[in-house]
Q: What sequence folds into this?
């Protein structure tokens, strides 16, 4: 019987359950004692689901086949939340009324704020439901949904995530709930590549339909919650997808926002790298340097389709004219680059600096965006190159002027393409009348689409135009370490699975202003990029410049050879990749994707962070960390090992798979489309047959205390190997004894020689990391071969005491501990923060050691804290036991956010000045100098080349001061967590 409308209230009983069906096989609504339940039956292509709307306190629980696959947050967090101008969060409570009419369930609920109600409208469909809700009364400023993350399994999507651990530059958690996301300016004008879409391992998805800035937190502070807050009082609009596998959730989303209509990049840009000057020179580039760079690449056979000149070629930002001092002959430059067989491109921006020639012209002609607070004046924005205005692309005359200037520049100097950088809009600005902030993504897309972007793409997102344009997507600038390399891989998975399939990593080797990448990082990054859709390069494997020291860095010939090998691998794979591009234009499916998109029943695939599918046939498993082996997870299927020529049947985990620096693990699914083409491109016959693996990968012990490691020599080749011998290389004064055989006459394919070793460090072994190198020699058909694997064994400090003349003190309530061994020191301490508002720390110091002219110096060997702002460093004060007596200053390294130099300017004991920033590194050499009341802070990576962090006046400094080492956990958001900080070489000269 059809009942329309059906209504109920919170006081309805189970006996009063009204039920309605929206046509045969359609949704049904049932009222029970504690919930209103919407049931959607399975249908062709959709699994069906139920949605329980709890009435005691409004909450939403989605189930598929009787199992929970998504549920809102319980308790005081609240499911449907809102906050007013006071910033205090309120939420919906008991349901007071509900109706089911015309396929829409409308629910009204009270809230924790007197007199304010929440009204939600749920529209169920076959594989999704629409959730729209708003707040009546109370003048809300922001509305949000909150979910219990664990109810949906693991979470993915989002795009480039801001995290307390340094994301998106050096961190990208995968899955998102494996780390922490704290993304407070998540919006359409963001420079980050993001979309308001998330999906889960239990095959549900969430899309928030908004053009406003959001505040997104996922497992922030390890709280197990996902909160998705929109900074607007307007009705909150969301879609929840419910499918059987995650790939179908992705396809549902693409059905809403669109798929690429074309690829902006042609075949050649997929086949060869783009070489961009940024990470090679940053802004210290000139004509001679760029030509030398291009010549080195050309002469060393490092192929590429384009040399692209990045920032700092203009006379001033926005002028679109060459700096005659650094580029005296741009026409000659262009010709020489073309003569080497490269295209030529340049970097451009819509941001015009206030002191540029074009700024006044743009202001006079009304070509710039207006200020959001005062639309009578141009909007002024701060960026990494100064103060600027932004060209208003919604003004046809402004766009025509800018576009005309670009084309004139390109025609005059034979420039083939452009790299557009910075954003097309900023939240400080007002959209042109008749437009919204989200329109500027579309306008920027339309502008860029008229030029060859040379494989650099543009960073547009959030709307259908961006999805359909088919631009290459380059990542935000990365650091130059292993963490950034790993982030570049998981970030591509995040970007490609929110609907931007033509991805590349950031510039190979990173581009975030950190020290030049090591040889191993650079090579491994090139190998990783060779198994991505495109290669985006900058740092030359011949030589580069360390931007932090200004010193030239020379790489060896092996670096050049292995980088060239990665380029050639990618070129050979290009026909297969191009097939995937054409397939994506038909289906919208990502090219580079997580294993579980192709193998959804393989549970282990959902937490694999360093492998991916490149199309349906290639499983990429490059080595993204130090060492010569790795574990490889193979899902169900028949896999061809392109390095060893063996066939392996999955599911299987290959432990200790051989991955010396010249080897990039990759496997081909022999039953997948494109397998034959992939095998032809990737097959190698010059790879060592065996590997040696040391476990554990990070052993730890105390000085002089024995510990055990195991070496496993495995034959991955097609035939047997003989005369196998395992050995262990140790630091001087260490000893190792094998418990069992360390040799084997032969090992057949797949066999392993396992040896357990008892390792005893030297009695005086220094704290910190020491290399243990496992080696294996063997004989194969090609002759005798040696392979190795290295791990770092950590000798831990143990809490004890310090010796004279050193003393300890603290300002925490968490009982810090200390240790000293010769010139080595350790501090374990808690504390909510080490800053102006809360100064809680442990201290090892020398009393009355620093005179009127003094230098305090120490080497911060390592630090480890749960909080990304945990701090360790050095300090000065008139009395470190009582900082309120004046003269107080600290120079510390944070766990994730670089240096902080803080001083007390008024003598009240509170740190109230600040300088610092940059990236965190260890070891860090720290130095504080005192000249009367002037303090200056310096830092160095090697103890030889020093950079000034800041200088400050500390008028309360007087007499001979205390000097010491400090550490604080900054655990206000991580209660009970401590920091461990290890120092060496502390000295005071006065």
A:
């Amino acid at each position: 019987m059809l009942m329309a409308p059906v209504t109920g209230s919170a006081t309805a009983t189970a006996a009063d359950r009204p039920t309605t069906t929206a046509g045969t096989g359609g949704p049904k609504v049932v009222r029970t004692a504690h919930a209103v339940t919407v049931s959607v039956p399975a249908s062709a292509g959709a699994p069906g689901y139920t949605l329980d709307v709890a009435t005691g306190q409004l909450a939403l629980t989605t189930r598929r086949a009787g199992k929970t696959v998504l549920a809102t947050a319980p308790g005081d967090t609240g499911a449907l939340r809102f906050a007013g101008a006071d910033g205090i969060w309120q939420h919906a409570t008991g349901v007071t009324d509900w109706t089911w009419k015309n396929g829409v369930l409308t629910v009204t609920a009270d809230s924790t704020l007197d007199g304010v109600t929440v009204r939600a409208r749920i529209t169920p469909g076959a594989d999704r439901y629409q959730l729209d809700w708003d707040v009546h009364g109370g003048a809300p400023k922001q509305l949000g949904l909150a979910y219990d993350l664990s109810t949906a399994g693991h979470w993915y999507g989002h795009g480039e995530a801001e995290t307390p651990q340094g994301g998106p530059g050096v961190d990208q958690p995968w899955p998102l709930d494996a780390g922490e996301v704290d993304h407070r300016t998540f919006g359409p004008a963001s420079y980050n590549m993001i979309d308001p879409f998330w999906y889960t391992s239990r095959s549900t998805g969430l899309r928030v339909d908004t053009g406003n800035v959001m505040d997104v937190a996922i497992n922030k502070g390890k709280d197990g919650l996902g909160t998705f807050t929109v900074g607007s009082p307007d009705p909150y609009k969301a879609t929840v997808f419910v499918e059987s596998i995650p790939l179908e959730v992705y396809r549902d989303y693409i059905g809403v926002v669109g798929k690429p209509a074309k690829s902006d990049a042609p075949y050649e840009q997929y086949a060869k790298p783009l070489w961009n000057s940024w990470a090679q020179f940053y802004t210290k580039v000139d004509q001679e340097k760029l030509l030398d760079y291009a010549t080195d690449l050309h002469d060393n056979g490092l192929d590429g389709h384009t040399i692209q000149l990045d920032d700092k070629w203009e006379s001033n930002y926005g002028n679109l004219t060459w700096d005659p001092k650094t580029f005296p002959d741009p026409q000659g430059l262009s010709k020489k680059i073309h003569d080497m067989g490269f295209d030529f491109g340049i970097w451009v921006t819509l941001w015009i600096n206030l002191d540029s020639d074009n700024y006044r012209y743009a202001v006079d002609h009304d070509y710039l965006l207006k200020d959001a607070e005062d639309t009578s004046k141009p909007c002024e924005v701060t960026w990494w190159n100064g103060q600027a205005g932004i060209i208003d692309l919604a003004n046809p005359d402004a766009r025509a002027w800018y576009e005309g200037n670009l084309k004139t520049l390109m025609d005059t100097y034979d420039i083939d393409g452009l790299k557009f950088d910075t954003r097309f809009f900023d939240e400080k600005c007002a959209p042109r009348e008749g437009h919204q902030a989200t329109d500027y993504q579309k306008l920027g897309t339309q502008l860029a689409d008229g030029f060859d972007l040379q494989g650099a793409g543009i960073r547009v997102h959030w709307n259908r135009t961006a999805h359909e344009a088919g631009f290459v997507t380059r990542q935000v600038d990365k650091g130059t370490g292993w963490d950034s390399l790993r982030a570049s891989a998981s970030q591509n998975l995040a970007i490609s699975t929110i609907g931007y399939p033509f991805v590349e990593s950031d510039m190979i080797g990173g581009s975030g202003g950190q020290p030049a990448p090591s040889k191993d990082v650079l090579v491994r990054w090139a190998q990783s990029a060779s198994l991505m859709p495109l290669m985006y390069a900058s740092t030359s494997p011949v030589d580069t410049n360390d931007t932090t020291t200004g010193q030239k860095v020379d790489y060896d010939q092996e670096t050049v050879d292995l980088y060239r090998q990665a380029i050639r691998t990618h070129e050979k794979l290009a026909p297969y990749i191009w097939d995937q591009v054409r397939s994506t234009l038909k289906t919208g499916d990502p090219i580079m994707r997580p294993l579980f998109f192709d193998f959804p029943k393989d549970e282990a695939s959902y937490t694999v962070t360093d492998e991916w599918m490149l199309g349906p046939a290639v499983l990429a498993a490059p080595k993204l960390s130090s060492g010569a082996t790795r574990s490889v997870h193979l899902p169900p299927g028949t896999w061809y090992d392109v390095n060893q020529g063996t066939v392996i049947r999955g599911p299987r985990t290959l432990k200790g798979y051989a991955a010396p620096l010249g080897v990039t693990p990759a496997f081909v699914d022999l039953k997948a489309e494109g397998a034959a083409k992939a095998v032809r491109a990737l097959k190698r016959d010059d790879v060592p047959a065996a590997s040696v693996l040391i476990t554990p990968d990070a052993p730890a012990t105390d000085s002089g205390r024995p510990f055990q490691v195991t070496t496993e020599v495995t034959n991955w080749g097609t035939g047997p190997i003989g005369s196998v011998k395992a050995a262990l290389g140790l630091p001087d004064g260490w000893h190792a004894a094998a418990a069992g055989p360390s040799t084997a006459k032969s090992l057949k394919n797949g066999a392993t020689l396992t040896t357990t070793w008892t390792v005893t460090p030297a009695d005086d072994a220094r704290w910190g990391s020491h290399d243990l190198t496992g080696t294996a020699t063997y004989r194969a058909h090609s002759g005798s071969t040696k392979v190795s694997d290295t791990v770092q064994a950590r000798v831990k400090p143990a809490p004890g005491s310090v010796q004279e003349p050193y003393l300890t003190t603290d300002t925490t309530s968490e009982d810090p501990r200390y240790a000293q061994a010769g010139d080595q020191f350790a501090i374990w301490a808690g504390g909510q923060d080490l800053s102006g508002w809360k100064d809680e720390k442990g201290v090892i110091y020398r009393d009355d050691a620093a005179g009127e002219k003094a230098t305090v110096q120490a080497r911060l060997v390592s630090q480890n804290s749960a909080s990304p702002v945990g701090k360790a460093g050095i300090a000065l004060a008139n009395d470190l036991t009582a900082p309120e007596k004046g003269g107080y200053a600290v120079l510390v390294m944070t766990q994730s956010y670089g240096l902080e130099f803080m001083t007390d300017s008024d003598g009240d004991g509170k740190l109230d000045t600040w300088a610092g920033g940059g990236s965190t590194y260890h070891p860090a050499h720290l130095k504080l100098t005192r000249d009367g009341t002037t303090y200056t802070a310096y830092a160095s990576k090697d103890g030889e080349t020093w950079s000034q962090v800041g200088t400050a006046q500390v008028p309360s400094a007087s007499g001979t001061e205390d000097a010491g080492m400090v550490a604080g956990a900054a655990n206000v958001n991580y209660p009970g967590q401590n920091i461990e900080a290890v120092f060496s070489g502390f000295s005071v000269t006065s």
Notes: The CA atoms of residues 192 and 515 lie 23 Å apart. The first helix runs from residue 246 to 257. The chain is about 15% helix and 40% strand.
